[in-house]
Structure formats: structure tokens, C-alpha cells
Amino acid sequence: FQSIMCVGLIMLTKLIATVMFQKEFFEAWKFVPILCVASFFHGLGEFLGAIYISSKKTNAIFYTTLTAALTNVLLNLLLIPQFGGYGAAIATLISYFVVFFIRFIHGRRIIKFPVYSCQSIICIGLMLLSMVAMCLQVKASGWLCGIVVALIFALQRRSVMQLIRSVLKSS
Q: What pTM does this model have?
């Protein structure tokens, strides 16, 4: 579900920026798609961090967060001089992905949980495709993002419908 929200936000980024950003900051909309995907991985990493809390291995949270911080600083030093704001956004994306990946691998050693790898990889790939299309300002990237949302929805329809049912029951 989070991937659908992420691609939806990527699709609407430029429109939202025209309404919310001042003229001087409008060009910053170009970084938002990358930061949306970074936020996606950050959310997954934080979710997996709960494994450490529940298993009383909170020092792992410190070490994975430290790894991300060092990765981010190093990548910022390397990427910002050449790519500017894009470099900072990409450094953030990679850093959050590193935390997610480490916590995913290590977390599975602590608690066995199901992984729908093929479906997840396809959804992440589609999300990255929409991010790149928007950043490169590909013509019809809005349409592409709409198609991506539909594809991800189709792939995750059971989970989405289950979420909708639970929300409707609680209201």
C-alpha cells in the first residue's frame, strides 16, 4: 500500500509544487520523487527496527542508524559537488536503502517472517521507474505513473482490499 501512495505522490509532485512552493523554490520539485522513494525505504527500515526493540537488541538500531549516517555523509561528499541537490537526494535514498537492507537481512535471523520477494521486487522496480521518469521529465511521465499505480494496485490487490475492509469495519 505504501508503494501505491509513494507513486501517487510522485505522480502529483509537480502539481503540488505549483500550489505549495514559492517561485524561488519551485525547482526543488525535481528532488521530491527521489525523496519519496527514500521515505518508502525509511518507513520499511523503521518498521523492521521494531524487531530489535521486541527482541531487546536495541544496540542494533544504533549501529544500523550509524551505518546510514556515515553512508549519507560519505555519499554527500562524493555526489553533491557533481550533482548538487540530486546528489543529496540520491545519497539519502541510498542511505535509507542501506538501513532497510541491513535490518531486513539481520531481522530475518531474529524473527522469521514471510517475504513476497518477486512481488516486492516488481513493485519496487515500478516505483523506481516512475521516480526516474519524473526526475528526467519524460513526456507523459504522469500517465506512466498512473499506469504504475494501477499495476502495483493489481499486484497488491489482496492486501489493499484487506486494508479497506478493516478500515470500513472499524468505522
A: 0.83
